[in-house]
Amino acid sequence: MTPTAPALQLEHVSKDFRFGSLFSRAVHHAVVDVNLHLERCHVLGVVGESGSGKSTLGRIAVGLIPPTSGTVTVAGERLDNLDAGALRRKRRQMQMIFQDSSSSLNPRMTLQDLLMEPFRVQGLLTEPDRRRRASELADEVQLAQAFLPRMPHEFSGGQRQRISIARALALDPGLIVADEPVSALDVSVQAAILNLLKDIQEARDLSMLFISHDMAVIEFMSDDVAVIYQGRIVEHAACQEVFAKPRNDYTKLLLTSTPSL
Ligand SMILES: Nc1ncnc2c1ncn2[C@@H]1O[C@H](COP(=O)(O)OP(=O)(O)OP(=O)(O)O)[C@@H](O)[C@H]1O
């Protein structure tokens, strides 16, 4: 690992999805020749309409799916150069936060168990230390200690998203990919979760790829912005620049058509 290397670098990354039988083949080019650069401790917003390839890009960035071509380098290490064991270890440093958090929470586990689970799965820490870390993580995402014995169904959507954020933070990742983390929430709750994510990103010096279709959300969260259209990056610059002086017609369209938070 190189200490000065960017948190994430995508070079000429493409992803094709293939459909059909042997006799009728079709290919969908979901991501096309993407180059992205995320500086350490920065937030890179990725914005585009539904189906533009944002989630595919996020999954490629954390090594959940391989690109069809191109390279992904995380903190100086190319993911395609890692063997299965090294990739598993590397994945601890790269966590994803999804839109629909409730589906990933085991309905039969208490909040305490949900927050201890990442350490148990990895065989890290003793039970008392796992309990202590669970309680610290609850504090960090502003969930009361009194909630620790509660089950997922006893929490609101916003609180469940806080649980997912805490679980993503448990193993101290350096890189977070947040894929539409507030899209499923009421507008009143969205702002609170965005503020929390921003505070945590700053306090932990996290590098974050922040995916959203909402320009207002992107503007609030990001240092830099990449605009994706039909799988291609059409604009990639500092956030202020993109919002003050958009160059691409599609970016201009997004800016005029997205309602503010
Ligand atoms: N596993 C898959 N198999 C086939 N096609 C896929 C697969 N995953 C994504 N796609 C297709 O690739 C394109 C990009 O999808 P992706 O989910 O990355 O877009 P997105 O910008 O995140 O959209 P949304 O915000 O609606 O999730 C879409 O046309 C989608 O149908």
Automatic annotation (TrEMBL):
Keywords: ATP-binding, Nucleotide-binding, Transport. It comes from the Bacteria. PROSITE patterns: ABC_TRANSPORTER_1 (PS00211), ABC_TRANSPORTER_2 (PS50893). Pfam families: ABC_tran (PF00005). Residues 8-255 form the ABC transporter domain. GO terms for biological process: transmembrane transport. GO terms for molecular function: ATP binding; ATP hydrolysis activity. Belongs to the ABC transporter superfamily. This is ATP-binding cassette domain-containing protein.
